[in-house]
Specification:
Chain lengths: 236, 421
């Protein structure tokens, strides 16, 4: 179940969003618990935990954009969607890394488009684990902690955040790619990088969160950039 | 020629084939490899070797070495091998048959040039005598490898490097490509005739002239192919793009002026309403409603990039008239490395393409992320429209960016990424 927070001062608008979420839940089988805060000030003072936030921009006192700035000071990840009367107000939403915005009065298809994108982000943020049968025994690691995987003579090396040495196990890159899922991009025939750990994308390489630079092989270059393109564009 | 000589000549078959494969690879290297290249490449090489052996057995075995029938057999073998090479290129590289034919024909030209150069070297060294006077087989191999390496290195520097830089796009002029393949076969025939004449014994001067003509024919064919496929295509693309950009530059100027005029008018109206408010008392609900209505019709988008503001303001107005809602969250500064006319062209193409796809709603996000400039467009209920998007793709390619589209669950995604510079 995902926790949805609606920060909206007009009860009718909050109800409309809640109804849209109910419909989306019924259509996709997702379950949501919805909380409504009528004031941005409450949001800033209480910092309530949520998986996805819908934020009205025009509110009395602290407006939605200011509240979003406050949110980003302590939470860089929770997906945020603005709700606004005027599209012009949300043009600078990228500055608080908002996913997108919805213009009132809300049309369900517009809402669904944004929700699909938000759900992709939410699934990305969850803490999926993977069990790795290493030579020293089974190790369970979070997928998001794996920085990259490379192979040397049939031995896969999982470079995991916070582990000083990579985890070594037998296997193939193809098998690892199938197991690791869509967040991993094939940089070369011998290497998979976790796109969540990419900090810089260059024409011929990616720089990862641990400072290492991985270079695209010629065979993988085009496909890797296309995958990264979809990832940055939040299409996957 | 009998089977044992075919088998005995296996190293020579492997060497000839190796030269042809290397020649073809000089050109095909510019193409993207197919998935599973690791096993496709050896499979293609083995397939070609098998084809070469089978062709030699069928076409050369019944003939006598050195005779005219043998030369004709060789010509037929090389012609059919050319077709096999096209199949091999298609198996290894992700391309169309016409581009594969180009690579093979051009590869053959380079191989023939190397072969001609080697022959000329031998005959000059032998003082005009036919055959391989005074060379051991090791020396002969060394000479062949050296001549081949020098020719291929020159071809790599002059042709492959520019191809790798610019990419190889399929040509539209297909009949000329077939023509070129025929020319290559004629050149091979020419080479075989010179070899035959040399063995029969002709004057050194005449042989040198023939070799010179043969070499020139190879270079001319290569130059023609290169011109045909790479330069002419690139120029045609550049011309089309130049026209599109010139047209968009004109449109951009017009749009900029109209958007500025609308904004000035809007400013006047707001000013007039404010004055009215001062005179009538701003507390009037009707007046507040009017201010609000005016703001709704204010189509100005301010992203920090004038060209982006212009195209978004203009297109939003046009799209709204067609009942398409455009929502955009845009950091215009992220695109500051692009020329204004290119920004106008790119977003006109993307938004017109999205509108043509029949979507009621377009969401556009432009931002800087991971050192890149990222553009993301989603159209609910849309399907990609090739022509519009091709213009966008061309502009993006010019800036070294990646342009991709995907339709998923009835939503069209357009993603553009300009890697960090």
């Amino acid at each position: 179940m995902y926790r949805i927070l609606i920060v909206e001062d007009t009860p009718a608008e909050a109800d409309a969003l809640r109804a849209a979420l109910d419909r989306y839940g019924a259509e996709t089988g997702e379950r949501f618990s919805v909380t409504v805060l009528p004031q941005a000030l409450d949001f800033v003072e209480r910092c309530p935990a949520a998986d996805l936030i819908f934020m009205d921009i025009e509110m009395p006192g602290i407006n939605g954009m200011e509240a979003a700035e406050a949110l980003r000071a302590y939470d860089a990840e929770t997906p945020l969607i603005f709700v606004t009367n005027l599209a012009q107000y949300a043009v600078h939403g990228y500055a608080v890394d908002a996913l997108d915005f919805i213009v009132k009065p809300m049309i369900y298809n517009d809402f669904r488009l944004r929700m699909d994108r938000a759900m992709r982000q939410l699934r990305k943020n969850d803490g999926a684990m993977i069990t790795l049968p290493t030579a020293e025994g089974m190790r369970v690691v979070r997928l998001r902690d794996i920085i990259y995987v490379d192979i040397l003579r049939h031995d896969l090396y999982y470079h995991v955040d916070s582990l000083p040495e990579p985890l070594r196990l037998r296997g193939s890159i193809k098998g690892a790619a199938n197991e690791l899922g869509a967040d991993f991009v094939r940089v070369s025939s011998a290497c998979l990088a976790n796109m969540c750990h990419v900090r810089l994308i260059r024409q011929g390489s990616v720089v990862l969160s641990n400072g290492e630079e991985l270079y695209f092989s010629r065979g993988c270059h085009k496909a890797a950039l296309e995958t990264l393109n979809a990832f940055v564009g939040r299409s996957i | 020629m009998d089977l044992s000589s075919v088998l005995h000549g296996f190293p020579s078959i492997a060497w000839s084939l190796g030269r042809i494969i290397a020649g073809v690879a000089l050109f095909a290297a510019a193409l993207p490899l197919r998935d599973g290249a690791r096993w496709r490449i050896p499979a293609a090489i083995l397939g070609l070797m098998a084809a070469y052996v089978v062709l030699s057995v069928l076409l050369l075995m019944p003939t006598r070495e050195g005779g005219l029938a043998f030369s004709l057999g060789q010509l037929a073998t090389y012609s059919l091998l050319l077709i096999s090479c096209v199949g091999a290129v298609l198996a290894v590289w992700d391309t169309v048959v016409w581009t594969a034919l180009f690579c093979c024909a051009a590869g053959y030209s380079v191989q023939n040039l190397a072969s001609g150069a080697t022959e000329l070297f031998y005959v000059l060294q032998a003082g005009g005598h036919p055959g391989l006077v005074g060379y051991t087989s090791q020396e002969r191999l060394l000479i062949e490898i050296t001549c081949t390496a020098v020719t291929y290195a020159a071809a790599f520097a002059l042709i492959t490097r520019p191809l790798l830089r610019d990419g190889l796009s399929p040509t539209r002029d297909r009949s000329m490509l077939v023509m070129m393949a025929v020319v290559i076969i004629v050149i091979i025939g020419f080479d075989l005739v010179i070899k035959w004449l040399t063995e029969q014994g002709i004057a050194l001067g005449a042989m040198m002239l023939l070799r010179l003509f043969h070499g020139l024919a190879c270079i001319f064919t290569l130059a023609m192919e290169f011109e045909l496929l790479v330069r002419r295509e690139a120029e045609a693309e550049r011309d089309t793009l130049r026209q599109v950009i010139a047209e968009h530059e004109r449109q951009y100027e017009q749009a900029r002026e109209s958007v500025a005029a609308v904004n000035a008018r809007m400013h006047d109206i707001r000013h007039a309403v404010a004055q009215l408010g001062a005179a009538e008392g701003m507390g009037s609900e009707a007046l507040r409603e009017m201010v609000r209505e005016i703001a709704v019709y204010d189509t100005t988008v301010r992203t920090g990039n004038e060209a982006l503001d212009t195209v978004l303001s203009e297109r939003r107005f046009l799209l709204e008239r067609e009942g398409v809602a455009l929502s955009c969250m845009a950091d215009g500064a992220a695109l500051s490395f692009m020329a204004p006319a290119d920004i106008y062209t790119l977003f006109s193409a993307i938004l017109d393409g999205a509108a043509a796809a029949g979507t009621p709603s377009i969401s556009l996000v432009i931002r800087e992320a991971l050192g890149t400039a990222s553009i993301h467009v989603e159209c609910y209920g849309g399907t990609p429209d090739g022509a519009w998007l091709e213009t966008g793709r061309t502009v993006v390619r010019r800036y070294g960016g990646t342009f991709s589209t995907a339709a998923e669950d009835g939503t069209l995604h357009i993603n553009v990424l300009f890697p960090a510079r």
